[in-house]
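Exercise 7. Predict the joint structure of the components listed below.
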Amino acid sequence: MATNVQDTRTAILLISCADCTGLVATITRFIHENNGNIVDLEQYVDPEENVFFMRLEWDIEYLSIPLDEFGNAFQESIAIPYGMEWTLHASVDRPRMAIFVSSLSHCLYDILARVHSGEWAVDVPLIISNHDTLEPIAQKFGIDFHVFPISRDTKHEQEEKQLVLLKEKEVDCIVLARYMQILSPDFVDHYPSRIINIHHSFLPAFPGAKPYHSAHERGVKIIGATSHYVTAELDTGPIIEQDIVRVRHADSIDDLVRKGRDLEKLVLSRAVWHHLRRKVLVFRNRTLVFA
Amino acid sequence: MATNVQDTRTAILLISCADCTGLVATITRFIHENNGNIVDLEQYVDPEENVFFMRLEWDIEYLSIPLDEFGNAFQESIAIPYGMEWTLHASVDRPRMAIFVSSLSHCLYDILARVHSGEWAVDVPLIISNHDTLEPIAQKFGIDFHVFPISRDTKHEQEEKQLVLLKEKEVDCIVLARYMQILSPDFVDHYPSRIINIHHSFLPAFPGAKPYHSAHERGVKIIGATSHYVTAELDTGPIIEQDIVRVRHADSIDDLVRKGRDLEKLVLSRAVWHHLRRKVLVFRNRTLVFA
Amino acid sequence: MATNVQDTRTAILLISCADCTGLVATITRFIHENNGNIVDLEQYVDPEENVFFMRLEWDIEYLSIPLDEFGNAFQESIAIPYGMEWTLHASVDRPRMAIFVSSLSHCLYDILARVHSGEWAVDVPLIISNHDTLEPIAQKFGIDFHVFPISRDTKHEQEEKQLVLLKEKEVDCIVLARYMQILSPDFVDHYPSRIINIHHSFLPAFPGAKPYHSAHERGVKIIGATSHYVTAELDTGPIIEQDIVRVRHADSIDDLVRKGRDLEKLVLSRAVWHHLRRKVLVFRNRTLVFA
Amino acid sequence: MATNVQDTRTAILLISCADCTGLVATITRFIHENNGNIVDLEQYVDPEENVFFMRLEWDIEYLSIPLDEFGNAFQESIAIPYGMEWTLHASVDRPRMAIFVSSLSHCLYDILARVHSGEWAVDVPLIISNHDTLEPIAQKFGIDFHVFPISRDTKHEQEEKQLVLLKEKEVDCIVLARYMQILSPDFVDHYPSRIINIHHSFLPAFPGAKPYHSAHERGVKIIGATSHYVTAELDTGPIIEQDIVRVRHADSIDDLVRKGRDLEKLVLSRAVWHHLRRKVLVFRNRTLVFA
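Solution:
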């Protein structure tokens, strides 16, 4: 029975397992028998790897058991027999998100405006930066701002301190809003598929530094931006969202940077939205975005 | 179990009914019990009207009963109890499609190239026109071309003859590829949700004649095209697909017409593709496109 | 001789007049003779109305006379003989822009972030609203916020007060950032082609109130936003910029509103950018955007 | 004085030279003094290289001297003194275009439909292929079809024969409409900036073979197509036009190929249109497209 999902207490189940017949029937029956009303269901089977994926969202108002008991029961009667990986989320849970920035403000402003206006149901307990440039913006919005200057020598040590702070603040996910430092593989390991970056090119074109310069040099007619989960290897993590904008020969590098800023804001915010709404599943180095 | 859908013998079930709990579980269980393997499932519940919609595609290689028997069984045990409207299609069935044209060739060429190259699994037994202008193109592709000149006085009579011919040729659906005549409500009644038109504007903006002139006059920065099912009322049927292209102040009406041609081809072909792949459900005056 | 336009002191000349032969030669020769170096030239002739338009931007570093004298000389020797309408701007002049809002914050945040980060070379001396809802945002950015509640009876009187305030603050142009009141023709007359509105639909489709509801009801596959100069008649002023985003049958009205917000920010900010960079000429009810 | 450019006898002048002051004034005065009426003017100065570029189109109805004499006079009095490179074209000249194909028909059909319907003012004296697969399409349209099977050993020899044939047919430009052979640098040298290719990816992402497979493997959310002039080095020539289309995780490689086909047709046809209308200037490895 459908209702306005965003105003309703729902649960979201993300599942993957080896494909076999009857999976949809088995899972949906289990929800039904526990008085859950499905409001959204999407499934996909990877035809090469023969892996089954599903996102299920259901109304839990009349659920016959508490949600954590439901999880336990699901684990016993379905997930173990079928060898599933799964996560269960309640829509009312507010994720806690840290923002990492350097000295460019456009993505930070855009995110804080979304959080502050209630567009995103998320808490931002802290902002981390390698510079103090953007501290006044954090102050405007009343958010803690922590500066960790990074040099080759201090990087390991500073990341250790950042991890302590993130743990202390119970951070669930991290958004790199034009953060100009490369995170170490060790750091990334603490937040698998939970660090979202915005890269200012249409990956895999122009990875690395100064993509707008490279795009201008190559004479492309379109520039792009790519939001992806961060993995140990630079600019190669699973892509969540991409978009593009047209450019002309008369556009200077400054024009590309200007047009690109709007694109970065848009693409990053869409990726974060999908992540927060539990729309994204990661498989190998790709994402499934059920949106 | 997933396979390459397009190379596989599948069945496609399109369902709508009043929403209630357990529908997905009930339907998928029925497929499973008859040894059908679901390869694609999409569902949607209209939250205002409380209506449930589903598109199911499943591999019928190991189906325990012939597909028509399956249909009968589904009708008895599921569709009647739940008050469903439903249609069942086998992917191997080739629809028979008539094309209506007037004197513009771009959509006709585009469609015939797709049919001829095997991109669309469809038969085109005839082309109907109110002019003989495009007859040479039909001849190039070896397709029967029938001219029915239309005037106010002859319209009813000519449409009657067209209907006889369409029936004789066992036509399933009709594509109006820039056909410049308005079909009468009577004619339309014979092919409900089976006549696809391309209108050269971003509906509901600029309905009726000469939309490129109106767009130019209004000074819009974007023009569009809209493909929709034809209903009794002009340019107001359920929209299947739309797209747009940017224009500038320096673009003359001729430029709009030129840019619009490419858009019309693209939008019409996408709409027809969705229709042929049984991706479209019509509800009230809207479409659900499961693509 | 080209340089980075944005870092250079340039002058911008916008011209329109009845077309005749030799206009480009005459105008560019005049610039050249006064030691102005053209960095950008765009011209267009309306073929139906036979009107000539030109935007010229030139480096004034070596200009042989001060810019205001240049204007006087241009008026005498070129503009009067050819019956031209023209405006002359120095790139270093910072326009003064007022923002009108009601209770939605997304466009306001977006604009203030652009101003505050220096992306736009503009001063914002005040924000006007018919509600006090967004006053805390103005405070964050240290900008005066004035509330003028509007009712049918008080509208005329309140607009008079607004005009006094705008004059006092030497405002050049006004941005309606989702301002929910309709300005009276009298008010609009004080700022011809200098009030920029954002309408949340792809005009001329869905003018007036609640366009997202109408778009949902009509079942469109694309929604849009339109930024235009305000004229006496509602939602029919000259369009500066438009853009669109795809929607699906599963998108609720809330989803349309959410997707639309990002579109509104983007389209409004592009229109304001073109206006601030003196890229826009208005002719009849259309714009020429030299970008 | 403006008229409908496409119905008017115009001349098009494409110019590049070292930038200096007064160029626009000098050139436009020369046109004016010879009774040419400018209908379109675009200019651009590359700020890094300090190079001036201009495209001028003017009505030659009242030109005081024949167009070839005009060219000679321009060379003497303007081009030599300023060290210009320039080309002069009459709009009534019909270019002669060869099409190279392999076994995919979609671009070929699209091009032939445009030529045959008069959308492009161009003659196609021959089609060249390394297979005979598409010969029936050439026959439908009454165009000579020549098969040159290519192997490593015969490539040089076959290209020599192709060049003889192209010369014999007085071919001006070549369109590679999904031609699967790599042209040798020697061959390319005969048609500098006159061979247009369509590559089925968003270059510089996914150069080389099987870009749709690579795009699927990488999990991109957008695929593209790129049309460029062919140079000695594979897939790195000056880009004329690019465009993109969205894809989803559920899109198989077959879906990418299908969506990509429409993109390839569109992007290639836009590039050829710009080339035919003399809108493109090549500088270093980039294009200026005055459209």
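Discussion. Residues 10-90 of chain D form a domain with the Alpha-Beta Plaits fold (CATH 3.30.70.260).
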